[in-house]
Amino acid sequence: MLQQSDADNMRTMPKRLLNPASIDFPSAGDARTFEAESLDGRDKFLIDANRRGRIRLAKCTYQERHSVVIVLARLDVGGPDHDNPRVDTVPLPNFRQYNGAAIPCPHLHIYIVGWDIKWAVPAPVDAFPRMSDLALTLSDFMGYCGIADPPECQAALL
Fold this sequence. Notes:
Layout: H1 4-12, E1 15-17, E2 31-38, E3 44-50, E4 60-66, E5 70-77, E6 82-83, E7 102-103, E8 107-110, E9 120-122, H2 134-144
Antiparallel strand pairs: 1-2, 2-3, 3-4, 4-5, 5-8, 6-7, 8-9
């Protein structure tokens, strides 16, 4: 079973994109997946940018996956609020103030053992300072996930 410290380390460990020159931000209604690996080559990751929601053109979901199916982090921009569970004991101390709260977009989900990505917090502005541009936010998200020298993506056409 994945431990919280392992998930946190995987999310933030230094990584490299396997094809850094092929960063093509998805157009509205499309999605892209970018392959990455740890610097030692032992761990494989996927970074997704999903714009499949056709109603809200400024909507995008970014996620980092390990072993194809384990979502370590997800950033939602331009979507609906996320309702956190209401529990007697929150899974991490810094989530206490968000217990049972509706978290507006943009919000960030991180993997929590026993909860997967069912909890969200407001997206930290210091980590994602350029959310008005979806393509630049992809670069910021890659940096948040430990991608060394994340490429600057072309401005998104909304």
